[in-house]
Amino acid sequence: MTRDQDLLSAAALTAFKLNGQFLDLAESLARPAGLTAAWWQVLGAVLHTPLPVSAIAREMGITRQAVQRTADVLVDRGLAEYRDNPAHRRAKLVAGTEAGLAAIKAIGPDHARQAKRLSGILGQEDFAAAVDALRKLSAALDELDRGGSAH
């Protein structure tokens, strides 16, 4: 294997592990607010602006079907609602309700504590550099997906 292949494999395995770690953390933060990590993810995407399911899926990197199932559950539980979309008659917008936004707000204090703890372990500068590196990696994978020449 080449060095590039080793790096791609290491990046993927690390991302898979990180995904599991972040999901575990998200579940532990969301549970006391009566949410799951998936519910929090979808509600968080529409916290400030209602979006169609397809836009939430693109932003979150998950399937449209998974977002649709989650949105349906959130609507059934009164945590979100569907609104008419002026740009597209059939693609309704998902918006958080007062109950959904209150649940998200309830996560805030524990979220802040965990963020502070992680920043304390990494140091704020290294934490920011890690986030920047993850964003660059994600953008490069997007470019690769589009058939571009990821640098």
UniProtKB/TrEMBL annotation:
Biological process per Gene Ontology, one example term: response to stress
Record domain HTH marR-type: where: 4-139
UniProt xrefs under SMART domains: HTH_MARR
UniProtKB keywords: DNA-binding
Entry coiled-coil feature ranges: none
Stored PROSITE patterns: HTH_MARR_2
Gene Ontology molecular function terms on file: DNA binding; DNA-binding transcription factor activity
InterPro entries, alphabetized: HTH_MarR-typ, MarR/SlyA-like, WH-like_DNA-bd_sf, WH_DNA-bd_sf
PANTHER family for this protein: MARR FAMILY REGULATORY PROTEIN, TRANSCRIPTIONAL REGULATOR, MARR FAMILY
Entry protein name: DNA-binding MarR family transcriptional regulator
Protein source organism: Kribbella caucasensis
